[in-house]
Amino acid sequence: MDADVARWVLEYILRQPLDDRTLNNLLRVLPIPNDNARLKKSMLLRRIESEIIKKGSIPEKLLGFLERIEELDYQEGIETCDSMKHAYCSVAVDCTVRFLDEREEYFDAVKRIWRGRVWKMERSERAVGLVCDELRGWRDDIEAAVWDPSVCENVRVKSRGNGVLEAVRVYVDEAWKSAGPSFLEAVAGTVSEDTMREVLGQGGIGDRVGGDSTRDSIVSEKDKESRRGGVLPRQKHVAMKHPRGATIGTSRGVKITDTEELDLRKLSNYYECLPSPEINEVQEALRTSVAELQAVVKDPLPEALRLAENVMSCMGGQNMNQESSGRGQNGKNVDAANPSVGTSPEAALANEANCDNQRSGHQNDVPKPSLMARNGTACTFEWDDSVDSLPEGSADHASRLHLSTPNRRLVSPLKKYQTPKISRRRKVKKWSPLEEDTLRTGVQKLGMGNWKVILNAYREIFEERTEVDLKDKWRNMTRY
DNA sequence: ATAGGGATATTG
DNA sequence: CAATATCCCTAT
Q1: Which residue intervals make up region (Disordered) (predicted)?
Q2: Which nt is closest to the CA of A476, judged by C1'?
Q3: pLDDT tens readout for residues A377-404
Q4: How many Å apart are CA A363 and CA A361, to the nearest integer?
Q5: CA distance A207 to A212
Q6: How far is the CA of A431 from the C1' of B10 (A)?
Q7: Which residues surround strand B, with CB < 7 Å?
Q8: CA of residue A233 to C1' of nucleotide C11, angstroms
Q9: How confident is the model at residue A191 (pLDDT cuts 50, 70, 90)?
Q10: Phi first, then psi: what are they for A214, rounded to 5°?
Q11: Residue A229: left (phi > 0), alpha (psi -120 to 50), or beta?
């Protein structure tokens, strides 16, 4: 599967009300691009959601999740929103004051959270967005409470109205909202059902030119609201079956158009231009991978589990966790670590409860879904090691099915969609005379065929060129 | 990493 | 539309 497509699919399923187990299995199987901030953030958000739904109490690791999100935001120049600051503070407080009754543990928590995390943030090189007055205020109180029993009581009282769950929920909702819909959903809302059918079917297109051609990309409020609403089977054919009325003319939808390179624009201008191969390519990609995805989404538990596990049983175990250190891994490492991918089911995840439980034994009956096609720039991701250890069919499990039911989320895709690079082909860039000269001297000095050496030697001049480009250019220059 | 063939974009 | 330039994919 193409890396972009994989990313779209991931973005999509992260927003689906799938339970953790299913999601986890899917994540295990999909190639995860390691370089996409948006995606990472979605994962973290989803994990936070999962955590706050799971148990009554807030786990301390939410602090870590929030910190990572903040860092991602920072790198993208996104300012930390108030709800996030508040959520972080609330979690920190909650995870500390819960130990107020045990001096030892309380002190440990203070050291861990306030003298550890918070302290680090405060003296970080950059201004960490999570640090705010509220946090500092609490820090002082909580520190004082370590030594002073009377302050201790104050803290206890003050923390009663903390409302962690609410705070976190508010933030998560806001974050999803500003992230906008997943690409697949955006596209689904962009193209009418008829168009989709035509393109996905045989592609009889020309006869529709004209008419309602000035339409913009639209995602209807209705669709957005139902996005994560309730238990699944509703929106099975998300990408293809949008009731025309809901998506197009009638809705007071929101534009998603201000995205420079994003081909959503082209998709939305579908009626105006002749279909470019590029669009066809996108839609073909969507067709195939969405079809695969639908098999999972429409009937999540049985279907997805079966798919995911069948796939898993065909693969070697891949327990790389991209989240923890993020950058350390790439496709090569994964492949190197698992030379037996696809051949040795017994090597796979031997210690994973879910795998053992549900493996149906005949991995060869099922054709290898292309979902698992691996990509050189991707690695696998372990959603959460704790979920798998939970007993199957427990109350916990059942409750997680309703994961997203409470959050009704109004998505306004006003925010720019972080452009996935659909155009797999770079823009054509004519060679300048300088470049040509440089190439000539490069070949003369460093030897023809040593394209990489030449490229490195004149990196500033060969801007945006690859060694293959040099090679091709030389081929052109020396023809005849 | 490189070469070669093929796809796509650009030019005339 | 053909010729050419650039870019991409794949086998070696």
Answers
A1: 202-230, 316-344
A2: C5
A3: 333 343 443 333 333 333 333 333 233 3
A4: 6
A5: 13
A6: 13
A7: A 276-278, 425, 427-428, 430, 448-453, 467-468, 471-472
A8: 45
A9: low
A10: -90, 15
A11: beta
CB atoms closer than 10 angstroms to residue A226: 14
Fold of A433-478: Arc Repressor Mutant, subunit A (1.10.10)
Q: Protein A273 CA to nucleic acid C1 C1', in Å?
A: 21
Strand, coil or helix: A150: helix
Q: Tell me, what amino acid is at A97? A: V
Lowest-confidence segment of A28-32, A408-412, A439-443 by average pLDDT: A408-412
Q: How far apart are CA A360 and CA A343, in angstroms?
A: 17
Q: Record the tokens describing residue A184, joined without a space.
A: 């697949």
The tokens for A332 are 């090569």
Domain boundaries in chain A? 3-189, 433-478
Span CA (A76) to C1' (B6), Å = 38
Q: Which residues contact A85 (CB under 8 A, 6 or more apart)?
A: A129, A130, A132, A134, A135
**Residue A223 tokens, joined:** 């669709």
Residue A330, φ and ψ in degrees, nearest 5 = -145, 180
End-to-end CA distance of chain A: 40
Instruction: Give me A251's structure tokens.
Output: 């809705």
* Strand B: positions under 7 A of a protein C-beta atom: 1-6, 8-11
Closest CA to A154 of A165, A168, A144: A144
